[in-house]
Amino acid sequence: MITSAAFDPAAWAPGHPDMTPADTDLVRRYLAHAAHEKRLAERTLVLYASDLHKLSVFAVAAGVGLMAVQHHQVRRWVGQMHATGRSGRGIALVLSGWRGFYNWLCHHHDLAHNPVAGVRAPKAPRPLPKALGVEEALQLANHQQALADPVQEARDRCMVELLYGGGLRLGELLGLDVDGRPPAVGWVDAAAGEVHVLGKGGKRRTVPLGPVALEAWRQWLSLRGQWLGATVGAPVGASAGTSAGGSGRRGVGRPPLEPAVRDDGLRALFVSPRGRRLSPQGARLALRDRSQRAGLATPVHPHMLRHSFASHVLQSSGDIRAVQELLGHAHIGTTQVYTRLDFQHLARAYDAAHPRAGRQGAASAPAMTPLAPSATRSAPVSGDVFVGVPVPSAPKASSGEGVD
User: Fold this and answer.
1) pTM to 2 decimal places
2) Which residues are registered as beta bridge partners of 197?
3) 13 to 2, 8, 9, 23, 49: CA distances (angstroms)
4) 362 contacts: CB under 8 Å, gap ≥ 6
5) Residue 321, C-beta contacts closer than 8 angstroms, at least 6 positions apart
6) How far apart are CA 96 and CA 6, in angstroms?
7) Going by C-beta distance under 8 Å and a sequence separation of 6 or more, which residues neighbour residue 110?
8) How far is Cα 383 from Cα 82, in angstroms, rounded to an integer?
9) Helix axes 42-62, 21-36, angle to 10 degrees
10) What backbone phi and psi angles, to 5 degrees, belong to 386?
11) Which residues carry out catalysis?
């Protein structure tokens, strides 16, 4: 299999040794097209390569070449994947990879029809995104660990403030540089109170940042240089210690970084203790560890803070179009999943206090005291009171990794 560490279309290997050289060449040429002409993200290319690996296994088992696959065969393969326990969403992603491959064959190799066209994955309930309550998000952001490395504390707090305060994706966060000079694709503009990011599909967007996030950014910048000595192999002082995103004595007993890696680290806003641009895995570990030290019941992953940002903004403003713009969603349907969270938020308040909710004990619920007509205010946040009803924290769902 091809890994994301070094994607090379020519290195793709078929899933079955009996796959013909001609079919193998077709797949490699398609992956090269996706990489160099469509300029798809590396992770997307790796997933496509995996999808076509599965396709090659099915095709060889059925005794057909890739150009001869028929609609009914694709439907049967979908049934086989479903029978082995693959989720509807997982099957839909595989079909998307196959569909793109056959569209390319139709346009470039005169294939008469796309055998994947019209084939749908089994329906599955769309998972709700996991979101923290307002108090939990603030608890995570404000947490301070006694005797911790102050450099790591500043970095991790800045990451939390940008993820939660700006609703950034992890890739957008780690793509930020210290300033906007070329070749930067993302940076914080403190004077304007904004962060500029390069999102999915190469789309740029600008998101406002509040004063707390900007202060965390300034604090991290003031300490960041202490980790850059490792980029030239110089020993760093005794404040090193073991940390998420890097461990041990930084720069001691290790060779200097490659010039390209070193230069990228010098530009990067978020770096590891060795002076490299922080990796996605390093950021996930750092955030998980911080959430555990902060006493949160659930380990926090970066996208959970993006979900929390969207849920809390929608609860306070009710403006789904604004949330769509802030998140950089191309389609409003992607953003609408957060309205389901907002509905759960209100439904829980109703069930907890309304005398007609029909729940056990509802009859003894205290009478609600309406606000005076002149008492206008913005929408409540977690822990506030709305028409006499305590509003609970933002609901947490059992899943949500698939929501963008």
Assistant:
1) 0.62
2) 205
3) 8, 11, 9, 11, 9
4) 351, 354, 355, 356
5) 332
6) 23
7) none
8) 43
9) 160
10) -120, 110
11) 169, 200, 303, 306, 329, 338
CA dihedral for 275, 155, 401, 99, sign (positive or negative): negative
Per residue of the chain (404 residues), what is the pLDDT tens digit?
Answer: 343 445 788 888 887 788 999 999 999 999 999 999 988 888 889 999 999 999 999 999 999 999 999 999 999 999 999 999 999 989 999 999 999 999 999 999 999 999 999 999 998 776 778 899 999 999 999 998 877 899 999 999 999 999 999 999 999 999 999 999 999 999 999 999 999 999 887 889 999 999 999 999 999 999 999 998 754 443 333 333 444 454 444 445 567 788 888 899 999 999 999 999 999 999 999 999 999 999 999 999 999 999 999 999 988 888 999 999 999 998 998 888 888 766 665 566 556 666 665 554 444 444 433 333 333 333 333 333 222 333 334 334 444 445 67
Q: How far apart are CA 245 and CA 225, in angstroms?
A: 16
Give the CA distances from residue 74 to residues 13, 66, 98, 113, 119, in Å, rounded to whole numbers and listed in that order: 21, 11, 10, 13, 8
Measured between alpha carbons, how far is 329 from 14 in angstroms, rounded to an integer?
A: 35
The amino acid present at 41, given as its one-letter code, is: A
Helix (H) or strand (E) holding 159: helix 150-166
- Point out which residues pair with 386 in neighbouring strands: 389
* Count of CB atoms situated within 10 Å of the CB of 388: 12
Beta strands 389-390; 385-386: pairing state: antiparallel
> End-to-end alpha-carbon separation of the chain, Å?
26
310-332: burial string, b at 16+ Cβ within 10 Å, e else = bbbbbbeeeebeebbebbbbeee
